[in-house]
Each structure stands twice: as structure tokens, then as C-alpha cells.
Amino acid sequence: MRKMKQLIPNIYIALVFLFLYLPIAVLIVFSFNSVPKSFIWGGFTLNNYARLFSGNDGGELLASLLTTLRVAAIASVSATFLAVVSCLGLSYFSKKIQTLVLNVTYVPNIMPELVTGISFMLLFAFIGVPKGEVTLVLAHIAFCVPFAVLSINPKLRQLDKNLSEAARDLGATQLQAILKVIIPEIMPGIVSSILLTFTLSVDDYLVSNFNVDSTVQTLPMTIYSMAKHGVNPKMNALTTIMFLAIFLLLLAANIKSIAETHEKKKKIKEVLKK
Amino acid sequence: MQGLRDPIRSYLRRLGEVPLHLRALLVPAILLLVSFFLPGMSLVLFTREKLRLSLFQLLTSGAMRLTIHEAPFTLSFGGATPFLVLALLIPIVIVALVLLYPVITSRVPGRAVSAATLILFVVGLFTRLLALSRLVPASFLTEAGLTSGDVLFAATAIENVAILLAIVGAILAFFGTLGIVVRVKMLSYPYFLWLIVFTILPLLLIFLAAFFERSPDGSLSFTLDGFHQLLVDRVVDTDFYGIPLKLQEYFSVFLHSLDYAVATTIGCLLIAYPLAYVMAARTRRLHTDSSLMLMFFVLPMWINTMLRTYAWRAFFGQTGVLNNLLLSLHVISDPILFLKLDLLSDIIIKLVLVNDFLPFMLLPIYSVLVKLDDNVKQAAHDLGANARQTFFRVVLPLSLPGVISGIQMVFMPSLTFYMIPDIISEGSVTTIGSTVQAFILSESGTQQLAGNVLSLLLLIFVLITMGILRNSDRESGGGGMIL
Fold it and tell me: Would you say residue B268 has pLDDT above 90?
């Protein structure tokens, strides 16, 4: 009876799991399909991987992949840097001003991404910056900043105010106190900020679309235009590679916590035995 | 040897006296110097041919042969030579000044050295920019039949970093020279400026752009053309859950997008709530954090949405996986046109939307449920509540904050996320997002105005919805406290 009670939830979990992974599984399986441009199985091949970046569409994929990675790297690091520096300064202001500044910061988070993209486009037209990679990078930094602040500010608030004062009392300069005491303390926030903003930037389509000219294409834009034009097995291969990369990355990030959980389980079992 | 070592040692010791702002200036000065010799500059001509040259090469070569429109030209850099020489010398002088600071300050006050370095630095930056602007003389452009827009000096990363650092260095030197102590508080000043430019100004522009248009001579004038364009008296026949309706064109588009968003939100909620509940129960029962399992539910979110949508189309397409499977099993004799039938494709679009946004609903609900104390349920049970009463009167109200933030994270993006309907229906479904996008990126001024108006209306609608949700969040939070 008890087993039955646990069976239904487990079946439910498995079903949702299937639902989420069905599209990815389809793409991965058919990335090895030898029949070009179709979803009829014709045998195993690695051709789609070998020719991923060759040919016209392959070149386009590679160029946009490089653009996306470059933009995401610049945007995530700049946004995080800006957030760290500003949050450091902000913590010396009164509560009232802090709340005001944070509320203004989070405004873009409750706006639809589409409108955010349009507002940046209007801004660049207003200032007079022509659309291109510069506006793309600026727009990405701008929409990443609220998320960076969101990951860093709480960490800074949890920090004991006395910590930097203690460092000062022990003879550290203000700069040393920041670099050697505060920054290492908020490092987890910085890392998660870079990871979060990087993935947001890589995945963004709506904001990018309004802030580039025809010479610059990001990966989601290329994928979108390819997806609209029918079947392209190269996209299956690309998905498989991306999936594997992300999977390994997440697994590496989680291995520590998995090991800890394992330890905990062991301990609980030991306690229960006694 | 001993005699030589002592002065060096005392010099090195006194090097520590160099004030921080001058040391900070040393880095950009050296970068400016190094980048002078690196082939970092690229001269991009309209011919799309890129020439990678260092400023030093430009200085020494003096002239360059180019082929434009298949005619040979000689581009002479003579006009820029004095500026290039200055741009090379000034960083050297700055580095020398900083390194000799301990020696000089025995004769002149340190502040004078700071001021001199600062002035040199600003002059150095300007000469460098002037040198770049003079590389291609106007006479060459007319001769070659080019406009100034055809020539572009693109600096690569190291140049940009050098110039950015140089500006930061100049600000630091400015503070140092005036004796202003840099306080930590000041670190957030640039951010205030950033907020004004990248948050407040864009928001204002969204409001203004809906009502003002720029005439060809550059002046702004008030107009309501955008609204007129939207409110055009065009009625379309549409079908809403089987009810035939006659609606104004854009209202119909909005209604259908709203339908997608509401259906996505409800679908996500119906699937995610039980899942979060089951997972939270599992976590508490096994005394482990199910972070690994949660990770597997969040993982698909990291794969590009467009790719997953494309996969769904491949799954349901006419020659897609599902049709092939059913055909080979002889369940059907002809492929089913899932994506071409209005009703079916509508359902599939909603299914894909739910698939895409599910993790955003799962995470907040799970994080609330997992923190729910088992004792609360036990208490309800002890007070005589049965399982159903416990759930509806205790667990559900307590988990409402998670549900509401889940709704916030699903409803709003799914309203404007036009790529999924577009890919699945192969462009035959128009949503509010694709309408705005088409308007904004069109050539016609009136259409752009209409797009601006529509995005303003969309913004207002979303803000009101979020406000209502936030209020109910507060109320339910209050209710939770009483319990």
C-alpha cells in the first residue's frame, strides 16, 4: 500500500520529465540521421557534426555563435562589475535612498522584454548611436544590470558591517578592505551573477532584435530565421553539443552538493541504525 | 657593486611614496604606449577590406597604396605625423614622470607633478584621437569619390581598454591633484547616471514616442496618428473558443495573445503545482535536497527556446516524427496535418508555450513548498482537519506567494513571446508581439508610431496586471501570517 502511494507521484514526475525532454530527445536522436533535411530515420551518421560550421549556413552559424559568446562575455562581466561597484557604494547610503535606487533598478524586470528592447532602440536613436555591435553590447549590459544587482546586493547586505571596519582597524586601507575582505566574501554572488547574466545574454532574442543592424546576427536570431525556413540537421547537431556542454557544466557545479547529500544520507542511516 | 646597490634600494623604497592616483595612471599610460606598437588599429574602408596596422607602422610608412573601385590611390598620412609623434611621446613622458616622482619631488611639490601628469594625460588622449581623425584627409576622400561614412577606424579590444582605462585614470588623477579623498560612497555615482540614461530615459522615451513624430527637418510635433492607425475601422471575423466574433483587427490580435498567455499560465500552474508538491514531499521524506532532480527539471530552460520550438515542429510536422511513427504502426494511413488545422495548431502552440515556461512556474512554487513546516500540517490534522481541508485551507494559502511569483514569471513573458506561435504556425498566426515588431521595424513613420503606441499600451497593461498580482500577494501574505 505504501509502495503504491509512492508510485503515483513517481509516475507523475516521470511523465513531466518526458514532456520536458521530448523535444530535446528528438533533436539529439535526429542529429545522427543520415537522411538530409528530414525527420525520417535513415541510418547513423556523424556528418551533421563534421560539417557543422562548413558551407553557407554553417559559416553563418559559426559567425553568430562567436558574436553571441563575445557579446555575452562582455555584457556579463561589465554588468557584474558595474553592479559590484555600485552596490558597494550604495551600501553607504541611507535605507530610503537605497530602496529608491533598487526600485528604479528593478523597473526593467517588470517590463515585457519586447518593450525593453524597443525602449533601448528609442534611446539609441535619441542619443544618435547607429545600430550595430556597440548598441547590441550596450543593450545587453543594460538588461543584465538589474539581474546582476539582484544577485550581488543581498550578499552584500548579509555581510557583517563590522567586517570591513575590523579590517580597517587592523591597518588595512579602504581599498585593501574592499579587495581582500569584502570581495572574497561576496564571491559566490559575483559568480552567480556572471553565470546568470551570461545565460540571459546568450538566450536573448527580443532585445537583440531591435538593437542590431543587418551586419550583426546573434545565435538566437540565426536559429530563428533557420527554424522558420524548415528543417536543417545542423541545428540538431548544435543542440546536442549545447545540451552536452550545459549538462556537464551543471553537473560539475552540482557534484559538490551531490557529494554532500550522499554524506548526509550516510550519516542519517548510521544514526537510524543506532 | 655594493655602492650601486644602495641608491637603487633607496630609490625603490621611495617609489612607495608615489601617490595612488599616479600609480593608477601608470597602467593606462603603459597600455597607450604598448598599443601604439600593436597592430590593433584596423582601417576599414567601404570596400570591406580590413587593414590591420599599428599606429607605429602608420607613422613610419608615411603613405599607403590602396585600390578603390579598381583604381590605385596613394593615401598619405603626412597630416597626421605631428599628432602621431605627440601621441607616442606623451605616454613615455608620463611613465618617466611617475617613475622619477621620488627624485623630482625633492625639488618641486608633489601636487605640481600630479597636475602636470594629469594635463599631459588629457592632452595625450586628445592628440591620439586627433591623429586618428587626420589619418584620412578630406582631399583624399573627394579624390577617391568616397564619403566620410565610408571610412571607419575601428579600434580593437586593447585600444578600447586603453582608452577606457585612460578616462578612469584621468578622473582618478583629477581627484588626486585636487586632494579630494575618494570615498566608497562615490563608487555608486556613475551608477546613478547609468540608471538615468538606461532606465528612466528609455521609459520616458516610450511615453514620448507614442505622441510625437519627427518631421524631415528634425523638429518634433505632437500627433495622434499612431492611435488612429491602431483604431482603424477594420473589423475581422474571428473565432474564439468556437464562438464566432466580429472584432476590431488589433483587438482581435490582442485577445488571441491574451488567450495564449492565460492558457500558458493555467497550464503551467496545473502541471507545476502537483509536481512541486510531490517533489517537496519527497525532499522532506528522504531528508535530502532534491537539487539534482530540480536541476534536471531546469536544464531544458538552458537550451535555446527557438531550438526546442523547432523540435516540436519537427515532432508534429507533416513529415515529422509523430506522423512517421503512426504511419509505420499503421494507425493512420495518411499523415495528419497537426500544424495546418487551426484548432490543433492552436493547442500545440499552447502546449509548446507550457513546455517552455514550466520551469519558471516550478521553481518559485517548489521553493515555498519545501520550506513549509510539516508541523503546520500536523497541527491542522490534530485540530481535526481531513486531508482535503488541510490542503485547501492550510497548504494552498501558505504557498500562494510562490504561485503568484510563478504567475508573474510566466504570464508576462508569454504575452509578448511571439517566436513560438510564429515558428509553430509557420507565420500564419499573428500575435501582439509580432504585430509590434512588424510595426516598429517598418519603414513607414505612421506604422512606427503605431508600434510605439502599441508598446506603450502593452506596458501599461502589464504594469496594471503586475500591480494587481502584487496586491493580492500582499493580502495572501497577510492571511498566511494569521494562520
Answer: yes
Look at residue A145 in the predicted model and tell me its pLDDT.
Answer: 94
Nearest chain A residue to B285 by CA: give it: A6
Segment B414-436 shows an average pLDDT of: 86
User: Which residues of B fall within a CB distance of 8 Å from A265?
Assistant: 286-288
Choose, out of B20, B153, B160, B191, the residue to mutate when testing the contact with A (most A CBs < 10 Å). Answer: B191
Give the relative orientation of helices A2-30 and B342-369 as an angle to the nearest 10 degrees.
130
Mean pLDDT, chain B, rounded, equals 78
In this prediction, residues A117-125 reach a mean pLDDT of: 91
CB contact at 8 A, B353 and B260: yes
Per-residue pLDDT of B19-44, as tens digits, reads 777 777 787 788 778 877 776 555 55
Q: Do B313 and A111 touch (CB under 8 A)?
A: no
- Residue A65 contacts by C-beta under 8 Å, 6 or more apart in sequence? A219
Residues in B 103-142 with any Cβ partner in A closer than 8 A: none
What CA dihedral angle connects A171, A174, A176 and A179, to 10 degrees? Answer: 150
Residue A137 pLDDT level (bands cut at 50, 70, 90): very high
- The DSSP code sequence of A174-196 is HHHIIIIIIHHHTHHHHHHHHHH
Tell me the mean pLDDT in the region A219-232: 82
**In a 3-state reduction of DSSP, which class is residue A31?**
coil
Write out the three cell numbers for B65: 597604396
CA–CA dist A64, A220 (Å, integer): 8
CB contact under 8 A, B311 and A111: no
Q: Could B299 and A250 be called an inter-chain contact, meaning their C-beta atoms sit closer than 8 Å?
A: yes
Residue of chain A whose alpha carbon sits nearest to that of B161: A74
Say yes or no for a CB contact (<8 Å) between A199 and B436: no
| Number of alpha helices (DSSP H) and beta strands (DSSP E) in chain B | 22, 9
Biggest distance spanned by C-alpha atoms of chain B: 102
- Using one digit for the tens of pLDDT, what is the confidence trace for B270-304? 999 999 988 888 887 776 666 677 778 888 888 88
pLDDT score for B289: 62
- How confident is residue B158, by pLDDT bands cut at 50, 70 and 90? low
3-state secondary structure of B66: strand
Domains in chain A, please, with CATH? 50-232 (1.10.3720.10)
Q: Are A176 and A113 in contact (CB under 8 A)?
A: no
pLDDT value, residue B51: 62
CB B418 within 8 A of CB B433: yes
Task: Tell me the mean pLDDT in the region B89-115.
Answer: 82
From chain B, the residues in CB contact with A87 under 8 A are: 188
CA separation for the pair B385, B393 (Å, rounded): 9
H helix or E strand, kind and range, residue B72: strand B71-76
| Cα gap B305→B424, rounded to integer Å | 12
User: Most B CBs within 10 Å: which of A6, A122, A231, A262, as the mutation test of the B interface?
Assistant: A122
- A170 interfacial to chain B (CB closer than 8 Å): no
Of chain A residues 145-164, which have a CB less than 8 A from chain B?
A: 145
3-state DSSP helix/strand/coil percent for chain A, to nearest 5?
80, 0, 20
Do A23 and B279 count as a contact with CB atoms less than 8 A apart?
no
Question: How high is the pLDDT of residue B351?
Answer: 93
Integer CA distances (angstroms), B362 to A183, B162, B269, B355, in order: 32, 46, 8, 11
